Amino acid sequence: MQTAHRRIGVIGGGQLARMMVGPAAELALELTVLANDPQESAAQVAASVQLGSPDDPEAVRRLGNSVDVVTFDHEQVPPEALRALAETGCAIYPPPEALLYAQDKLAMRELLTELEIDSPRWWRIESSAQLADALKECGELVVKTVRGGYDGNGVRRVKTAREADDWLARDGVLLAEEIVFFDRELGAQVARTPQGEMRHYPTVETLQRSGRCYRVIAPAPGIPEGVDKRAREIAAAIAERIGVVGMLAVELFQVGEKVYVNELAMRPHNCGHWSMDGAVTGQFEQHLRAVAGLPLGDTAPHSRHTVMVNLLGDTRQDLRAGAALALASVPAVKLHLYGKEVKHRRKVGHVNLSGEDVGQLIDAAHRAEKLIVREGEKK
Ligand SMILES: Nc1ncnc2c1ncn2[C@@H]1O[C@H](COP(=O)(O)OP(=O)(O)OP(=O)(O)O)[C@@H](O)[C@H]1O
Ligand SMILES: [Mg+2]
Description:
- It is built from twelve helices and 18 strands.
- By secondary structure, it is α+β, with helices and mostly antiparallel strands.
- It folds into three domains: 7-92, Rossmann fold (3-Layer(aba) Sandwich); 121-178, Dna Ligase, domain 1 (2-Layer Sandwich); 184-373, D-amino Acid Aminotransferase, Chain A, domain 1 (2-Layer Sandwich).
- The strands form three sheets. Strands 10, 11, 12, 13, 14, 15, 16, 17 and 18 form a nine-stranded antiparallel sheet that branches. A five-stranded parallel sheet has the order 3-2-1-4-5, sandwiched between helices. Strands 6-9-7-8 form a four-stranded antiparallel sheet, sandwiched between helices.
- Helix 1 crosses helix 10.
- The longest helix has 18 residues, at 225-242.
- 47% of the residues are buried.
- The chain binds adenosine-5'-triphosphate and magnesium ion (MG).
- Residues 120, 142, 144, 149-155, 177, 179-180, 185, 208, 211, 251, 262-263 line the site of adenosine-5'-triphosphate.
């Protein structure tokens, strides 16, 4: 039997940390969240909260000194803070050497190239002239900030080099990629323990709107066996090579029978929210099991399909009124609200719906979504 860590610290107080709170209680793990503000999503519900910035080495050190293992709600923790954390001697999962590949998109592209895993064609851009040269080959490119991007922030399509001048002046270096005309986007998730045991989740179909995850279907309908196999192989190869501990998500573009890696995340991921209600072991519980050194859980889906739809801030400010309508209209829907103030297009929750018929599940999940986020929507 492995040694289990009981006291878990989470850096960041967003919705991902919040969704760890329930599973932590079930497993009798003591979760402490480091959050900026007591009103942050996870800070509202965690039994133990430390107030401080995840970017502040002192605050991170304090967290590390009070727990057995530290994990993350988001990966954008500065290197100084990670170094301070390492000095406390607590376990850090995923380890900073692995986390790098989720923090730095250039390091990630270099790693994938080394592992001979297909990526979009990519360029390291340090000057406007380099971008202009790359544009001569492709006409249009996706330019990305190397660090700090999320939900499509830090991703821009450009046709002329000038369009990236502001980012280049600020960051000095950017990643440019060819535009992949994909059939659809996929998400592959694997959980890995410190001892290297791994469990895969079914590969899912993801749909992004304005660079932001909007809908997920698990498993990806009609996925060719070869594509699913390759998605799992890629996730396993990356997890093993860099020593991930916890959940790894690999965002993929499917083009016919081929897949290209978009990016990596080393934490529970939006593409796995379906598993909270649709799989034997949800991704938040699985992440905690892995970082706590507990055996991993079964990842099998309960139903033929689960559809997850994100609730993005719209016209309704008080979501509870809409939630009551949705729960009445679609009794099978599982609702997850993040306790966040509603702002335009902000992720404020999600719904899950499991069953047999994907078309019906999609319709009903969107019905619930609209009732929750839009003022005056009728059943
Ligand atoms: N090379 C590409 N070709 C085509 N579309 C792309 C490409 N890169 C990104 N996109 C689109 O933009 C979305 C966001 O890109 P990416 O995942 O790199 O950004 P992010 O802001 O880091 O996202 P996340 O919210 O997942 O952290 C992708 O899901 C995809 O829809
Ligand atoms: Mg992404």
